[in-house]
Amino acid sequence: MWRRPVSARALRQDGVPGVNGSHRFDRAVTESQHAPHLPTAAPPPGRCGPRPGKHAEKKHSGQTGGRMAGRTTRDGERTGNGGQAGDGERTTRDGERTGNGGQAGDGERTGNGERTGNGERTGNGGRAPVVAGLLLAAGGGRRLGGRPKALLPHHGRPLVEHAARALRQGGCAPVYVVLGAAADRVRTAAELPGCVLLENPAWSEGMGTSLRTGLEALIGTDADAALVALVDQPGVGAEAVARVRSAYRSRAGLAAAGYGGGRGHPVLIGADHWRAVAEGARGDRGARDHLREHAASVLLVECGDIADPFDIDLPGDLGRLAP
Q1: pLDDT of 47-70, one tens digit each?
Q2: What pLDDT was estimated at residue 39?
Q3: What is the mean pLDDT of the segment spanning 215-226?
Q4: H or E element, residue 161
Q5: Which of 19, 23, 82, 231 shows a CA-CA span of 20 to 30 A to 220?
Q6: Residue 242 half-sphere exposure toward CB, CA atoms < 13 A
Q7: Same domain for 18 and 97?
Q8: Taking a C-beta distance cutoff of 8 angstroms, is the pair 215, 132 a contact?
Q9: Residue ranges under compositional bias (Gly residues) (predicted)?
Q10: Do 186 and 53 share a structural domain?
Q11: pLDDT of residue 207
Q12: 201: cis peptide before it, omega within 30°?
């Protein structure tokens, strides 16, 4: 039986894609997860999908009808390339963008999809952050009758050994130790494996000079932050070090141990702050002025339940050391 040819106009009205560039039906399919996929339809410009004439259907997680589904960032904005914004940056919880595809916050993935051992954001091409320990141990113990604090006996060993061990066991590496008073005697008497020993010739001018010596030595290394501890605080151990160290978020970060709401040591200083802190470290002030200036950015990490930040400053304090 003779049949009348189907006109191109009829095809267009039926919504068959591919005739005179009509994609109205194809659009309806790709907008719905439940509509059938038409492998022969050419996807509209800018969409993912098989080319005209191809019959192999690819299925991907997050795709509907050959279209790549965008992801929604934490601030509610939608990205157009599967969760990435711009040139591969991601949007963080606070609306800022990271430069390596990483995201801020605990337990999130790094720019290469890996996590660090404790859930920290790396921000360094995927490597784990390097948090160096910086032990200030140069004091001469003037109020202790001229007994260098680093050499005070505690559990039968020089006090500097215990402080350096707390930094190592708390996850800091490398550990820098700033010596001053009786530096040669400390080198001989104390066992400080794996530590970088620095000498502060201006130690008598105050603790600030030791902080400056340590930070200036760290500038230019691959360390991302320095965790600063004091040699004369035997009540601050590895547990407090680890807790403050875990507060690392970025090279621009600042954190400090908190004791009942007050700020104490150890103090975590991101590498972006080192030069400014070193320049302002004078006498016994250390990083105090810088932390006050950036008080709104300092993360206070409560450690009063695991540490006691008493100082060994006066003869009466010596009784707090173990024989």
Answers
A1: 344 444 444 343 333 333 333 334
A2: 38
A3: 98
A4: helix 159-169
A5: 231
A6: 12
A7: no
A8: no
A9: 114-126
A10: no
A11: 96
A12: no
Asked if 218 and 280 sit in the same domain, the reply is: yes
How many independent structural domains does the chain possess?
A: 3
Domain boundary among 37, 69, 101: 69
Other Cβ atoms less than 10 A from the Cβ of 321: the count is: 15
| Separate counts of helices (H) and strands (E) for the chain | 8, 11
Q: What is the pLDDT of residues 130-155, one digit of tens each?
A: 999 999 999 999 999 999 999 999 99
Pairing relation of β-strands 175-179 and 262-270? unpaired
Q: Clarify whether residues 83 and 148 are in a common domain.
A: no
Task: Quickly count: other Cβ atoms within 10 Å of residue 93's Cβ.
Answer: 12
What pairs with residue 9 in β-bridges? none
Find out whether 252 and 298 touch, Cβ atoms under 8 Å: no
Kindly provide the b/e burial profile for residues 54-79, where b requires at least 16 CB atoms within 10 angstroms of the residue's own CB: eeeeeeeeebbbbbeeebebeeeeeb
Q: How far apart are CA 163 and CA 240, in angstroms?
A: 12
Domain residues for 34? 1-69
User: Tokens 């990483």, residue?
Assistant: 102
- Rounded CA separation 132/196 (Å): 10
User: E strands, the chain, where?
Assistant: 63-64, 67-68, 131-137, 153-154, 157-158, 175-179, 195-199, 225-230, 254-259, 262-270, 298-302
Same domain, 219 and 165: yes
- Condensed to tens digits (0 to 9), the pLDDT of residues 82-117 reads 433 334 333 333 333 333 333 333 333 333 333 344
Do 79 and 176 lie in one domain? The reply is no
Q: CB-based contacts of 36: which residues, under 8 Å, 6+ apart?
A: 29
DSSP, collapsed to helix, strand or coil, labels residue 80 as: coil
Rounded CA separation 309/264 (Å): 7
